[in-house]
Structure formats: C-alpha cells, structure tokens
Design a protein that fits this description.
The complex is a heterodimer of chains A (258) and B (226).
Chain A (H helix, E strand, L loop, with lengths): L4 H135 L3 H17 L2 H8 L3 E6 L5 H15 L4 E6 L7 E5 L2 E3 L3 H17 L6 H6 L1
Parallel strand pairs in A: 1-2
Antiparallel strand pairs in A: 1-3, 3-4
Chain B lengths: L10 E3 L2 E3 L1 H21 L8 H21 L4 H19 L14 H29 L9 H36 L5 H33 L8
Antiparallel strand pairs in B: 1-2
Helix pairs in contact in B: 1-3, 2-3, 2-6, 3-6, 4-5, 4-6, 5-6
Classes of the chains: A alpha+beta (258), B mainly alpha (226).
Chain lengths: 258, 226
Amino acid sequence: MSFDYWTLGFQAVNVLVLIWLLHRFFWKPVSGMIAQRQTNAASLLLEAEATRAKAEAALAKVAATRDGLASEREAMLAAAQAEAKATRATLLEETRAEVDTLNDAAKAARLRAAKTLKETAVEDAQGLAVTIASQLAARLTGEAVEAAFLGWLEQGIADLSADERDALGKGSSLDLVCATDPDEAAQERIKSVVAKALGAEPELRFRTDPSLIAGFEVHSPHFSLRNSWSADLARLSQALADSRKDLPPPDETQTDAA
Amino acid sequence: MDNPLQTLPLFQLGPVPIMPAVVVTWAIMLVIVGLAILLTHRLSVVPGPVQAAAELLVTAVDAQIRDVTGAEPAPYRAFVGTLFLFILVANWSSLIPGITPPTATLETPAALAALVFVSIIWFGVKGAGVGGFLRGFALPNPAMIPLNILESFTRIFSMFVRLFGNVMSGAFVIAIVGSLAALLVPIPLMVLDLLTGAVQAYIFAILAMVFISSAVKKGAPENKET
C-alpha cells in the first residue's frame, strides 16, 4: 500500500474545482429555476387570490344589485297593488253608484208601472162599476122612475138662475131628450112640469136617446140640463176619475215584494 | 491479479506522477460538468423529464440538508451535493470494465475527508466566528477539549476509511470473483457494489453535513453560556 501526496492534492483540487463548476453550472441554475417557479406559483396564487377576491366582490355587487332589484320589485309590486286596490275601490264605488242609479231607475219604473197598473185597474173597476150601474139602472124603469126624474127635472130647472130660466123660457124651442119614446100622456106631463118650472111654455121637441138609460134632458143651442142616468153615471165616472188623482201612490214595499 | 491497493502512475508530468484515479476523476468531472452544462443550457419554467429529474435531485439534497441542519440549504448545497454526486459516480465507475473507482484508492477518500475537515472549519467559523467555533470544542465542558479535538480528526479519518474500505473491498471482491469466474458470476456482486456505492455516497455526504452542522450549532450564540 502506498500513499501519493500528489494524487491527494490533485484529487482535492479536482473536487474543489468540481464543486465550483457544479455550483456554477448545476446547483445554482437549477435551484434558481425552482425558486423562480415557486415565485411564479406564488405570484399566480396571489393573482388567483386577487382574482377570486375581485370575483367575490363582483359577486357581492351582483348580489347587492339583485337585492336592490328585489326590493325595487317589491316596492313596484306594492305600488301596483295599492294602485290596483284604489282602482278597484273606485270601480266598486262607480259600480255601486251606477247600480244604485239603476236600482233607483228600476224602482221608479216599477213604481210607475205599478201606478199605471193600479190606475188601469181602478179605471177598469170604475168602468165596470159604471157599466154595472148602467145595466142595473136600465132595469129601473116605470112610472116611479119617470116621476122621480120629472121631479129632478123640475128641481134642476128651479135651481137655475132667473136669467137662465128666462133665456130657456123665451127661446124658440128646446130639445127634450128621453130614453124611450114618450107617449102622449107622458109628453103632456113633461110639458106641464117644464112649463111650471120655467114659468113659460116653450116649444118642446121630443127626441129619443136610449143612451140616457132613463131620465129627461133639456138642450138648447146654448144650454143643456142633463137629468138622466147616463148623465149621473157620467158625473159619477168623472168624480171617480177625479178621485183617482187623489189616490195614494202604490206601496213601495208591496211593489218590491210583487 | 493486480493488487488493488497498489497503483502505478499512468504517466509523469515532470516529478509529478499522474495516477489513474486522477485521470478517472478528470473524466468523471468532464462527464458531470458536461451533463450539467447540457442540462442547464435549456432550463425552462415548464420542465421536461430530464430537468424534472435534475430538480428532483436538487430538491432531495435540499430536503436532506434541511432535515439535518434545520437551516436554509443554499450555503451547503454545492458542497454536500457535489460530494454526493462525485462519490456516487466515482463508485459506480467500477461498472466500466478496466476502470478502478477513484474512491477505491487511498488518496481520493483522503482528499474528500480533508475537504470535509476544512469545510467544517470554514462553515463553523463563517457561522459562529472564530471564537464561537473554538468555543465549540469546550462543550460540554473545557475538560472535553482534547477529546473534541481528537474526535474532529478521528471522525474524519473514519469517513475516509469507511469510504475507502467499502469501495475498495467491493472492487477487490469483484476482481477476485472475476478472476475465478469471469462470465455472469460477478454480476450480483456488481449490483451489490452499486448499492454499496450509493449508500456510501449518501453516508459520506450526510456525515459531512452532520459534522458541519454540529460545528455551526456548537458555536451558535445560544451555546455560549453552556
């Protein structure tokens, strides 16, 4: 075994040179590249973090905007609901007023119709009553009725004013209308009653009018003395017609019930 | 069979004999530096497979340094990493027929051990100052100074002998077996020699780092009062 110090020195120098060379060409560049990659990764991570923070901020902004939109939407909905409510109330009010108007008009129409119906019914009843009375009166004939009407004729003439009686008495002729043809005796009785009542004897022209039913009427060109069932019924009918004007209006509740 | 412990110079440069180990070391240097230049010439942020492997090596060396020292690996990376790479390649050079690994001679492990000895002093003084480094010999008490000084030599000597013994013995066994049965039989021993060579490179580098770290830590300010 031998030990060569030259070789020892050579190997020490060789290893030192190798250390320097590898430091220069291997360890430093490779570790530098690793460090650069780590730096790049760190910066990328920082950028990613910043980007994420930016994205989160944008997301928060979007969320805030969305919340704003939601609240605005709720406000708009509330306003629309309030407006719709007011419109509905207005429409209801208008509709109610219109319905009230229509109800009033309908009620008035019903009242008018009821009044008309009532008047028609009363008129018909009155007409029926007059018809019944006229038919009943038509059965009342005979001397008693004739005498009664003669008496009423005399009374009617007596109730005239003196001027009217003079005018009747001095007239050229008077029409004396009878319900039936009077015989000679009846004519004489009539003439005597008229003359007695007028205090004069005017010329009487007898006419027959069955529509009188019964009784005697005196007509001149300027005067008429109506004394017959027909005149009585006409007066009665007129009185009834006048009385209809004073009839109370139809009962509203009964009308509504009807 | 040649005596592996007996080497003859390849040639003379005047009075200076150039041994085969030196020439093989130069070849190893050329290969390693050439590969390093070729690799680092095309470094990119997105690494290829070769660059990834190189970065893996650097990262592994850094991790080992960090685990051993607890400090940043940058100041020690070139020294420890180069020791590991050189010893590994030198040990594995025994696979090339006719090549005797430089680490199988006395001078190369001795030179490496001497460099570790110097580096311990260098990093110790650099890290703790001259006083701090010298105070590290008085730990745990001044009575230990002679033993600590002796230990600083013996542990270096043990590194040298361990590396030389393992590599030389491997080469010696392979040479003996090869002389007896040259075909295929030495292959398992060569594989074992590969493993031994890697383990010895790792042990040498780690021990160097441990000794350097110990020198730095012993001289650190927190150990002054001890």
